[in-house]
Design goal:
Mean pLDDT: 97
CATH superfamily of the largest domain: Zn peptidases
Radius of gyration: 23 Å
Structural class: alpha+beta
Low-confidence stretches: none
Distance between the termini: 16 Å
Number of helices: 12
Strand content: 15-25%
Number of domains: 2
CATH class of the largest domain: Alpha Beta
Bound molecules: (2S)-amino(hydroxy)ethanoic acid, manganese (II) ion
Largest sheet: 9 strands, mixed
């Protein structure tokens, strides 16, 4: 076990302080959607804390932020041991999703700084741009660009749900960096994150050793029917886009239940003209499909596509789909997972191996470096919700495991 000491209370204070930015008194939680003023404020706060630690701060062209504690042996081109996550949020989010992993990474680096120890290998903490993909799709965008899965040019030209161009917003908030994404390939990558689901709590386990992460399929569906009078149009003569959209939602639940592992979510839906006494002429909605198994995920997509064709024919509407995101399931580095498990055992912390239901930056960085994740429990399995919570001692213990795994890997380097 490492003899470095983590300053847990300072980490908790920083989580608290960051969580104040974008606070929403009316609906609760905080909202720091990527590249908004609230998120800029979060970026500024993080960069200030990195500066206080004397880190080498670098920002790349998609706005990913990196703070590095250089090893004495690093001539500037050493592959660092990298930790990271994100500080952008969904709407009315909890304070921990992403932020915990970034600030725990900062706490790990601070443990070296506090004793004036120079690590055997440089250590970096990264905050990746637009992990949530709420305003600009896809999600995990900053880490996807960093891993070479999306060109910077295309990412910068992405138009948001609010019509803004991502590159313009990045310039506006002052985080259009100069480094080429991928400029610093990690030797290894570790991401500490809240589970955001119910498993660890239900099993009374403290540490999740995340071995893999499920595949993600996002698409937008547009149903075009005919507007007509709600009072004069007989049911059999309707071409009701709203009815069709609702039926598709019910079919998605059937697909998920019959698969047993696939999860299906209709998170956004808009009717036009969206008035009480007009049959909707148009329904636009999103479909989020997930499964740890690529074949089953593809099968769910295929079943949905077949259903869309069938119901369009039956109800006399036209249906168009647009693919927004498609990430295959990812298996993390087995050696790192073993190291995480050994660390949890060393501390005597209860632990279990598991799959990540949520998408994370680690799934993208796994394309360019050995990567793995550590989870801590989420109370009642809640996340993407102001009620998101993990107990302070659990947060600190999770960060202690991160520090221990980092020092183990530095020693192994
Ligand atoms: O969508 C996800 O799983 C992540 O929260 N971006
Ligand atoms: Mn997250
Ligand atoms: Mn999230």
């Amino acid at each position: 076990m490492t003899d470095l000491q983590l300053n847990g209370s300072l980490m908790l204070q920083q989580i608290q302080a960051l969580g104040q930015l974008g606070a929403d008194a009316e609906h609760g939680g905080r909202t720091r959607i990527a590249l908004t003023d609230a998120e800029k404020a979060g970026r500024d706060l993080l960069v200030g804390w990195m500066r206080e630690l004397g880190l080498d701060i670098q920002i790349d062209r998609i706005g990913n932020i990196f703070g590095t504690l250089r090893a004495a042996s690093d001539q500037g081109d050493q592959q660092p041991l990298m930790m990271g996550s994100h500080i952008d949020t969904v709407t009315n989010a909890g304070a921990l999703d992403g932020c915990y992993g970034v600030l725990a990474g900062l706490a790990v680096i601070r443990a070296f700084r506090d004793v004036g120890e120079s690590p055997q290998r440089s250590i970096t903490v990264g905050a990746f741009t637009n992990e949530e993909g709420v305003r600009y799709q896809p999600d995990m965008m900053g880490s996807l660009v960093y891993a070479g899965g999306l060109s910077v040019a295309r990412a910068l030209d992405t138009l948001g749900t609010d019509g803004t161009r991502l590159g313009d917003e990045l310039e506006r908030i002052g985080y259009a960096g100069t480094q080429e994404p991928g400029f610093m390939v990690p030797h290894e990558y570790l991401e500490l994150h809240i589970e955001q689901g119910p498993i660890l709590e239900a099993e009374g386990a403290l540490i999740g050793v995340v071995e893999n992460l499920q595949g993600i399929s996002w698409q937008q569906v547009e149903v075009q029917g005919n507007a007509n009078h709600a009072g004069t149009t007989p049911t059999h003569l309707r071409h009701d886009a709203g009815l069709v959209a609702s039926a598709i939602g019910v079919e998605l639940r059937r697909i998920a239940l019959e698969s047993g592992t696939t999860l299906a979510t209709v998170g956004c839906m808009k009717f036009e003209p969206n008035v009480i006494n007009v049959i909707p002429r148009k329904a636009t909605f999103t479909v989020d499909l997930r499964d740890p198994d690529e074949t089953r995920l593809a099968d769910a997509e295929c079943r949905l596509s077949e259903y869309l064709d069938k119901i369009a024919e039956e109800k006399g509407v036209s249906i168009a789909t647009e693919r927004l995101v498609r990430f295959e399931p990812v298996v993390f580095n087995a050696g790192l997972a073993d190291e995480i498990e050994a660390s949890a055992k060393g501390f005597g912390f209860s632990h279990r191996r598991m799959t990540s239901g949520a998408g994370h930056d680690a799934q993208m960085i796994a394309r360019i470096a050995p990567a793995a994740m550590i989870f801590v429990p989420s109370r009642d399995g809640i996340s993407h919700n102001p009620r998101e919570h993990t107990d302070d001692d659990q947060l600190i213990k999770g960060a202690q495991v991160l520090l221990d795994v980092v020092t183990r890997r530095l020693g192994a380097a």
